[in-house]
Amino acid sequence: MPTHVIEQNPADERGTLLAFLDAQRGGLRRAVHGLTDEQASSRPSASELSLAGLIKHVAETEQGWIRRAAGLPPAVQRDESNWAESFRLVSDESLAGVLAHWDKIAEETESFLRSVPSLEDTFALPEAPWFPKDTRVSMRWVALHLVEEIARHAGHADVIRESLDGKTAFELVAEAGAGAA
What is the DSSP string of the chain? Predict the structure, then answer.
């Protein structure tokens, strides 16, 4: 889980985008380092957000955008009746299971973005009140949007984790690094 992205090859735009995406995933994953399902599902702040819920939401969101870019329907259908479930563990879900599922989604994202003929290829945004009507976006856009989406939630996760047990991102980087050594 990189904490700082070093561009491996300035000519490999896809590789650089994927490296930034992986770095943001790492920030969110570190926020749950060493936590139990109960701790990761708790809501220690005024927000309804939990760390486990953020990870589940980000995994679903990443998968949804890549499937949309590939011209496929979302794997998980969400509407007003089940939207809140995208932000919490339900039934037999566990933090470990959601993280493993996200690992598979990350592999699918990398495979897809490396396989598209061009980052300039486009796809239609879905009809929704928050998107301009009849708008197309590029594969580059979806990669950057995923970096933005995950980074936003990694910031939320930093605040939640610090509210939970006082650990900051820097402490978690050190802990995760020590565990990997």
Answer: --SS---S-TT-HHHHHHHHHHHHHHHHHHTTTT--HHHHH---SSSS--HHHHHHHHHHHHHHHHHHHTT---SS---TTTGGGGGS--TT--HHHHHHHHHHHHHHHHHHHHHSS-TT-EEEPPP-TTS-TT-EEEHHHHHHHHHHHHHHHHHHHHHHHHHHHS--HHHHHHHHHHHH-
Token pair 């939401």 is at which residue?
Answer: 57
Radius of gyration of the chain (CA): 17
Q: Phi then psi for 137, rounded to 5 degrees? A: -130, 160
Nearest alpha carbon to residue 2 among 40, 35, 30: 30
pLDDT (tens digit, 9 = 90+) per residue, 57-94? 999 999 999 999 999 998 988 888 888 888 999 999 99
pTM for the whole structure: 0.92
Q: What is the dihedral of CA 124, 127, 132, 133, to 10 degrees?
A: 80
Residue 105, both tokens: 């989604």
